[in-house]
Amino acid sequence: MQSANMLLRRIVRSAVLPFAAQQGMKKDLFPHSRTLSLALCLKQDKSCEPSEKLDLDEWKKVMKSGLQEEVSGAVSEAKELSSLAAARETLEMWRLAGRAVPENISEEQLKAFMECPSKSAKKKYLKYLHLKELHKKNDKRKMDEKRERRLEAQDQASKTDETKKRSFICLWSSTMDKAYNWRAAQSMIFGQPLVFDMSYEKEMSVREVANTVRQIVQSESCNRRSVDPFHIHFCNFKEDSLYHREFIKNYREAWDKLLITVTDQCYTEIFPKDKLIYLTADSPKVMKTFDHDKIYIVGSMVDKSIKTGLSLARAKRLGLETAALPLEKYLLWSSGAKNLSLDQMMHILLTLKDTADWKKALEFVPKRKYCGFVNTPVKEMKKTLDVSNTLKLGKGREEVEKRFARNYPKTYKVK
Predict the structure, then answer these.
(1) Considering the chain, what percentage of its residues have pLDDT values greater than 70?
(2) Which InterPro entries does the record associate with it (predicted)?
């Protein structure tokens, strides 16, 4: 009986349980197996009658059917996999042969291909899949092209706006350049001459000459953009000099197109001496008004590196009249230096030429160099301050009032 029980358990584990799991009967089968084993155990405990026999025919049938179904399922899966592999190989061979075969095919489509009844039906099905794949690719390509065209249109629109702006700016700048050049050309015929003395190259280093040339370039640009420009002359200018090389570095191809006069002659050989005025800060004579009939000369040098009185000595040696800007007359100077750059001189002269207003002209002096601008001369202002201080102290009041009344009869009356 024990051997029969063991045999029954092996049969249940080996054949019946897998079959029940496939058929969804596992939950219902376990109670039957348990009741069967309990019945066997009870029969074992009791004194079994020799007439009772165990019926194993049904279990043999179940075992055989389960094994057959398991084997058939495995065989069918193997056949299906082999048939799918064979179908894929067939598709690959047809693709290499140049037939209309889709590049990508799913398992469902492959199964449908295998179920086709004839070879022509298979070809038509593959052709249908191939055309469908081509339509998808064409739709995707059209969408990509549409997207690219839209992006290109946006870029083109932005570029068009930029080109319009740039074209307008270029047109405006070219028009203004023509207007500026026309004024400069008119000044070469009818304009007032302004001379830059280029004879100070030996007194400066290479760096100082480069700095001087940059200031002259800014002065020429400011003069060209003014309403009534000067006719600029570069006198004592030597070919292949350091000045010349620095000008070519700054102007390049435009150097030969400048509307100025460049000569190696001295200004005394071109203009009459009685019309020449050398502007130098060392001159004892102060410039009061701007004279449109005179020809002013500016030394092309950096004031910081030149010795005091160099331009004044040159003007005296040539017998020329000198003048200095009335900076101390109208400006309350601080501790800064009183020298001006060449472009600042050009701004001041152009403003004096157009307006004859010293206040507007001296606005181009850097404000860091002076404390303020006064309408009355600084010396008279100091005298007024001294008189007021004396009045406050009460020393010689009457005498001071009389002297102040003599100096300023319109503003003060003696009681």
Answers:
(1) 63
(2) MT_TRM10-typ, MT_TRM10-typ_sf, Trm10_C_MTase_dom, tRNA_m1G_MeTrfase_euk
Which residues face 296 on adjacent strands?
A: 194, 277
Lookup: tokens for 351 = 């403003």
Please write the tens of the pLDDT for every residue from 213-269: 999 999 998 998 888 899 999 999 998 899 999 999 998 888 988 889 999 999 999
Question: What is the rounded distance in angstroms from the CA atom of residue 70 to the CA atom of residue 20?
Answer: 11
Regions in the chain scoring below 50 on pLDDT: 26-43, 45-54, 71, 391, 410-415
> Residues, the chain, total?
415
**Residue 195 in contact with residue 233, Cβ under 8 Å?**
yes
Burial of 209 (0-12, 13-18, 19+ CB in 10 A): buried
Q: For residue range 395-410, what is the model confidence (pLDDT) as tens digits?
A: 555 665 676 666 655 4
Give the number of other Cβ atoms within 10 Å of residue 84's Cβ.
15
Give the C-alpha separation, 263 to 234, whole Å: 6
Using the structure block, give the residue that is written with the tokens 């010689």. Answer: 396
Domains and CATH numbers, the chain: 191-324 (3.40.1280.30)
DSSP-H helix ranges across 293-377: 310-318, 327-330, 342-355, 358-361
273 alpha-carbon distance from chain centroid? 56
Per-residue b or e along 283-298, where b marks 16 or more CB atoms closer than 10 Å to that residue's CB: beeebeebeeebbbbb
| Residue 230 CA: distances (Å) to CA of 219, 227, 260, 302 | 11, 10, 9, 22
Measured distance CA(193)–CA(271) in Å, rounded:
10
Q: How many of the other CB atoms lie within 10 Å of CB of 252? A: 9
Coil/strand/helix, residue 378: helix
Selection from 390, 216, 108, 188 nearest residue 404 by Cα: 390
Which residues does 203 contact at the CB level (< 8 Å), separation at least 6? 301, 305, 306, 307, 310
What span, in angstroms and rounded, lies between the C-alpha atoms of 297 and 280?
9
Instruction: Please name the residue that has the structure tokens 């197109």.
Output: 257
The CA distance from 356 to 327, in Å, is: 15
Q: How far apart are CA 107 and CA 395, in angstroms?
A: 122
What is the distance between the alpha carbons of residues 312 and 295, in angstroms, rounded to a whole number?
Answer: 16
CA–CA distance, 150 with 64 (Å, rounded to integer): 71
Q: What is the mean pLDDT of the chain?
A: 76
Distance of CA 289 to the CA centre of its chain: 49
Torsion sign over Cα 199, 203, 205, 208: negative
